[in-house]
Every structure is written in C-alpha cells, then in structure tokens.
Write a structure and sequence with these properties.
This protein is an alpha/beta fold and about 750 residues long. About 35% of the residues lie in helices and about 20% in strands. The protein has 20 helices and 27 strands. Strands 14, 18, 19, 20, 21, 23, 24, 25, 26 and 27 form a ten-stranded mixed beta sheet that branches. Helix 2 packs antiparallel against helix 3 (about 75-105) and helix 12 packs parallel to helix 13 (about 430-440). It is globular, with a radius of gyration of 27 Å. The two termini are about 45 Å apart. Keywords: ATP-binding, Kinase, Magnesium, Metal-binding, Nucleotide-binding, Phosphoprotein, Transferase. InterPro entries: PP_kinase, PP_kinase_C_1, PP_kinase_middle, PP_kinase_middle_dom_sf, PPK_C_dom2, PPK_N_dom, PPK_N_dom_sf. This is Polyphosphate kinase.
C-alpha cells in the first residue's frame, strides 16, 4: 500500500447508499458500481451480468489518477497523468455524456445493458465525476504542486509574485496579451455572449462609480496564447532548476482595469464550459461527405453545454447568472479550486529535467529487418520476402519499419501501386509525404481517409485535400461505416509476377503516437493476406459486397461471428477433455454477444484471461457464471493499445489474431475493422508470452472483481514493487537486439 494517502478517499466515501460499498484507499476500490435493475432475458444467463460501460470508463480514468498519486512514478510523469486525466474527462463529457443527453432529449435512449435507465446512468456519472474531479484537483493542490515546488518548479499565485515579476508581466500584458483580448459586457444592449466549448473565461463583476450599478462582463482567455507563462530568472537565463510559471488567466485578472477603464473591478472568477462536440453527419443525404463534414465542424462550436466548471469561491449570484444563461442544471456544475483545466500541466511535464522523468528510451530496429544496427535504413521489402515480421511498437522503431516500408515502396521503380488506410496521422506525417511521392512518380496510389476520426476531423480534411491535389485517389470508405482498419498494401512487379507486400496493424500510421502507444503490426508478403487485402480495398473503394477472406476477420460482416466460432471451438475441445485457454488483450470489452460467449466458455470450464486497458463490462469470478475468467488492466509509461485474440487448444496450433478492433458495438457493427491471423510459431509464442506476462501475479496491474470494483496490485506481500511490464519489455527487447548482433 502506498504511504501517500488518496486524495479521493474522503469524497469516495460519500457514494450513494444504493451501492453499499465504501472506499478502501489509494490502491483499493475506486468508483462504486450501481445495483442494476433486473430485466428479462432469454439467454439463460443472469440479468445482472453486465457492468455499466460509462462507470467502467470512469474507473479507467481513476486508474490514470492513481498513477498521478503514486510517489514511485517520476514527478513530471505524475503531472502528465494529471493532464491526461483532464483531457480524457473532457472528451468523455463532450462525447459520452453529450450523446446520452441527446438520446434522452430525443426519446431514443433505452435502458443500458447493465440494467440502468438512461437518467440513472446520468446520475451515476454525475456522482462519480464530481468525486473524481474533486480528487483530481486535490492531488494537484495537495501533492503535485508542493512536490514540484520542492524541485524548483513553481506555479505561482498572484500574491506570490515579486515586484520585478509584476513589472515583467505588466509589459508582457500590454505588448502581447491586451491586443488579443475582447471584453464583452452584458447589459440591455449587449446580450449574454456565446461561450465556446472548453474555453477558459473570466466572469467579471464591475461597478459603475457614477451610478453604483453592478455590471457583468466576460473575458475569454485566448486559447492560442500559452496557458502557463514562464517568468524570467534574476539573470535573465532559463534555469532548469528554477522554473517559475504563472497562469495566463491570473495575468489577465491582475490587469482587468486596463480592459474596463473608468469602472471599478469588484471581483472576478474563472469558469469553463464543456459542450456537446460529437459530430452527426447523415452520409446518405450528403452529396459530398467532405463538404458536409466541414459544415458540421462549424456547427460543433454551438453544441449544448453538458458541464460547467467554476472556481470554488465563486459568488452565488454570479453562479446563478451563469447557470441561467448557459441553461445547465445544478448537477452539471463543478466547483473546483483554481486553476481550472489542468491539461495545461503538459507544459510542466515537458520540462527538460531527466531526473524527474522516465529513464530515456530509444526504439531500435527490429532484428528481422536489420540484424545489425546501421545508419542507413534496412531493406524492408527484402526482409519481408525472407519471412513474416511481427513488429511491437514502441519497442520496435516505427520509422525504420512501417515508415521505411512505405518510403521505400514510394521510391522503388518496380512498385506499381500503394493502397493505404489513414485514420489518424500527425501534422507533418512522412506517411502522407510518401504517398504523395509515390503519386508523383506515376504509381497508382489509393488512400482511404477516415475524415470522421473523432477530434481529428479538421486535420484529416486538410490531408485529404492535399492528397487529392497530388493525384492520390482519395476515398472515404463505405457509407455509414468508419474505416478504422490499419492496412497498407504495396504491389510490386517481380519478373513475370506481381508480389503484394502487406502491413496489418493495431495502431494508427502516426510516427508521433507510435513512440507512446504500444501496438503490434504484421509485415508479410503471404499470398493469402495479399489476396485478402486486395478484396478489402476493393470493398472500400468500389463495390465488392460478397468478398470472402482467408486470413482476415473483417467487421462488420465476419468478425463477431468469427470470434464467437473460435470460442465455441474451444468449448467443444474442452468437452473432449483437452487443455484449452482463451486470452484477449484489448482496449475495451463491451459487446454483449462476445461477453456472453466468454461466459459460456467459463461455464464449460475454459480458462479465460482478459488483459484490458479501459472499459470492461464483464463480471469475472462469479460463481456459476465466470469462475474461470480473470481480468487485469495495466497502465503506465506507454498506452497499451494492441489487440490480440488467442484461442489455444492442446495439440493444435494456436489460432491468434491481431488487429484494430475492440469488442464494442461501434467496432463490430459500425466500422470497417480487420484482424489478421498470425501463423508463425515463433510469433504465436511471442504473443502468448506477452499476454501471460501481463496476467501474471508477479506483474503490477489492477484486478477486476465480480462486484465491478478494481483493486491495484503493485506491491508484493512484503511491500516490494511488483514487476513493471513495460520496463521489463524495454529490457527484453534491448537484450534481443544484443543477441542479434552476436549472430
């Protein structure tokens, strides 16, 4: 048990009586799980077998918060986890809460699989979110802020500034901040202004000295200016060990008199609004999807509010005004200590203080691509001809594998065509550049661009336009379905034949996130995979509704059924007395049909391991239902993002798939997803080992109980830290590289 107390412990004890559970400290249970309402079913399984997905997501985000609380995590990384928590919660409100409210308002909401009515789910979210946000603010104020100050990194309040600081900020305000500000008064001639989503604002109370009348004004904190302003040191140089910051809103607040000359500034308070920012585009009615999406992005700024964050010392009459004008209810108001919006802590986390961060890590080239590290890039196509290559990012370098694969294909005169899916990519993507280079060289290039990738829509529109101008054939997939599959295919002329080189991955073609996300990818020139990808790309770009696949499972047609068939095959083998096991490594497990199949497997005695990062709606370890099911979650330095589906039967080769799909309705029913079967015995052993290590009792992880509560297991019985999966993999892959050099 950590010696540092949980900042959320006190607030968690205020959970509703209905759950009949209490907090158990920093490494115990987090969010309560509401008692579901029993509803009839026809599966023969208990009606209360599903956990609520929204509460499960909030539990995931509290696991992130626990890492921020953990003194064993480097300090700047703890600050980063606070920023990640805040960003995660913003998106949760913008999408999940907003979507639920929209469905309730339109009468489309139905009882959830967990048995809760829609408004009950909203109530549960509100209770949990209030407690989590209080805990989040507490971790920063009580633990992280003082710890940073001890290391010379201070976020100063106005009363902590020196006179020299004030003079510097006054100059900065006049020259760089004041010209950008637009104060908006509220009176009969000026209606209450529109407050854009996620903007930070100052609510200002002014007094006219002549009339003594009170006036309200709003000042928006400019989002394009740095949120944290660094103060100079006495000698004018940046000192890594004396990093002092002040928030932009505090600087504006200290100079409000410049904005309202002749008025008395009585008081001011910060506030922030979260709005519905999920997109709705009716593709069937949109003659041009790109144009329709651009219009919808404009409308996004005007979505209805779903959350109002205010400074905890705000006057009641100011809060009443905001609540009335923004049309939010009491449960949507969150009083928090300033500063609001801790996503700004990313600036602090980026400080170049190596002793306060994770040890440095540099990904290396996979030894199958280049047995010896060299300055020049490996010949990826030649390596693929020698055999399948299983990549594991970020331990294996993305730039010398997937990126090099596409760049070499673009430059190779024997390559005739490149076909590629793009879901999310970086702003200066070498992948985009490679596709443009290939098109410039006269190759046939197809890019299936998912412009509806949430919160990346604007970036993807820009890249779609850029690709089109370069002569790339750009399509947007199949109407009504997002294209989430991670696929690339290169067609090369080799003598009298054409060879297809393929990549099927679990993560986006994004060199930046590939350094932070844990993902898998298969490079292969196996003819069956090449044929499968040709058929799938034809589906995406043309008309091929009846395509059948050999090594792929493709959603929405065959993935759910294909996986359930594998579960049934394992159950049959168990009945025959064989040793069997089912293991999933995924981001989220929500789909009821998949969960029910796993329950049937457990009832047949099949051991089932679930290695999940985020949402999990299955109840493990319940007598008569899921006694053989174990669920573990691992969070850490890298974001666990790969998906593996392993079905092991004694005496047979494992059936194991990797790919882009989580077990959620959206992935299985409303997206084009692809899983590829792994056939190399060496690769099958590697994937089994990865899951087994993650599930091991000696590995630090969170365990899910049948009551829906998570408990952290990161210390042994004698108080020693358990093994860190990711640190162990860094060491293991480094040893692999050294062994390859000796060969």
């Amino acid at each position: 048990m950590s010696s540092e107390p949980s900042a959320s412990e006190a607030s968690l004890t205020r959970l509703s009586q209905r759950a009949q559970h209490r907090a158990r400290g920093a490494n115990g249970r987090f969010i309560r799980v509401a008692t579901p309402v029993v509803h009839p079913g026809d599966t023969g399984l208990p009606d209360d077998r599903f956990l609520d997905r929204e509460i499960s997501w909030l539990q995931f985000n509290e696991r992130v918060l626990q890492l921020a609380q953990d003194p064993a995590v480097p300090l700047l990384e703890r600050a980063r986890f606070l920023a990640i928590f805040a960003s995660n919660l913003d998106e949760f409100f913008m999408v999940r809460v907003a979507g639920l409210k929209r469905r309730i308002a339109t009468g489309l909401a139905v009882r959830s699989a967990s048995g809760l009515e829609p408004r009950e789910v909203l109530d549960e979210i509100s209770r949990a979110a209030h407690q989590l946000m209080d805990a989040h603010a507490g971790v920063f104020q009580v633990h992280i802020r003082p710890a940073l100050a001890d290391e010379g990194v201070r976020i100063l309040r106005p009363d902590e500034l020196t006179e020299t600081d004030r003079e510097h900020l006054a100059t900065l305000f006049r020259q760089q901040i004041y010209p950008v500000l637009t104060p908006l008064a509220v009176d009969p001639a000026h209606p209450f202004p529109y407050i854009s989503g996620l903007s930070l604002n100052l609510a200002v109370i002014l007094i006219n000295p002549k009339t003594e009348r009170e006036h309200f004004a709003r000042v928006k904190v400019p989002p394009l200016l740095p949120r944290l302003l660094r103060l100079p040191t006495a000698d004018g140089d940046d000192d890594l060990y004396d990093a002092r910051f002040v928030t932009l809103e505090d600087v504006i607040a200290e100079h409000l008199q410049f904005l309202f000359p002749g008025m008395e500034v009585r008081e001011h308070f910060t506030f922030r609004v979260t709005r519905n920012e999920d997109l709705e585009v009716e593709e069937d009615d949109a003659e041009n999807l790109l144009t329709a999406l651009e219009k919808e992005l404009t409308r996004r700024r005007f979505g209805p509010p779903v959350r109002l964050e205010v400074a905890d010392d705000i006057d009641d009459h100011v809060l009443d005004l905001l609540v009335r004008e923004l049309a939010v209810n009491e449960g949507e108001v969150y009083r928090l200590p300033e500063p609001l919006d801790l996503t700004g802590l990313n600036v602090v986390a980026d400080l170049d203080r190596s002793e306060l961060r994770w040890p440095p890590f540099v990904a290396m080239t996979h030894p199958d691509l280049a047995p010896v590290e060299r300055s020049s890039q490996p010949d990826v196509l030649a390596a693929i001809r020698r055999g399948d290559v299983l990549l594991h990012h970020p331990y294996d370098s993305f730039s010398t594998s997937v990126q090099a694969f596409l760049e070499q294909a673009a430059a190779d005169p024997q390559v005739l065509a490149i076909k590629q899916t793009l879901y999310r990519t970086s702003g200066d993507s070498p992948i985009i550049d490679a596709l443009i280079d290939a098109a410039d060289a006269g190759k046939q290039v197809l890019a299936v661009v998912e412009i509806k990738a949430r919160f990346d829509e604007e970036n993807n529109i820009v890249w779609a336009r850029k690709l089109e101008r370069a002569g790339v054939h750009v399509v947007y997939g199949i109407v009504g379905l997002k294209t989430h599959a991670k696929l690339s295919m290169v067609v090369r002329q080799e003598g009298d034949t054409l060879r297809r080189y393929c990549h099927v991955g679990t993560g986006n073609y994004n060199p930046k996130t590939a350094r932070l996300y844990e993902d898998l990818g298969l490079l292969t020139c196996d003819p069956e995979v090449g044929e499968d990808l040709s058929r799938l790309f034809n589906q995406l770009s043309g008309m091929a509704p009846r395509s059948k696949f050999k090594r792929l499972l493709v959603a929405p047609r065959s993935m759910r059924n294909g996986l359930i068939e594998q579960v049934d095959r394992v159950i049959a083998a168990k009945h025959e007395g064989k040793e069997v096991r089912i293991q999933f490594k995924i981001n989220s497990l929500v789909d009821e049909q998949i969960i029910d199949a796993l329950y049937r497997a457990s009832q047949a005695g099949v051991p089932v391991d679930i290695f999940v990062r985020g949402i999990c709606a299955i109840r493990p370890g319940v007598d008569g239902l899921s006694e053989t099911i174990r669920v573990r979650s691992i969070l850490g330095r890298f974001l666990e993002h790969s998906r593996i589906f392993r079905f092991a039967v004694e005496g047979e080769q494992d059936v194991t798939y990797i790919g882009s799909a989580d077990m959620m309705h959206r992935n299985l029913d409303r997206r084009v997803e692809a899983l590829v079967r792994i056939t190399s015995p060496r690769h099958l052993t590697e994937l089994a080992g990865l899951i087994n290590t993650g599930m091991s009792a000696s590995t630090s992880s969170w365990h899910l109980g049948g009551d829906g509560l998570w408990e952290r297991h990161h210390l042994s019985a004698d108080g020693r830290p358990l093994n860190d999966l990711q640190a162990g993999l860094i060491e293991e892959y480094s040893k692999r590289r050294r062994r390859a050099r000796r060969r």
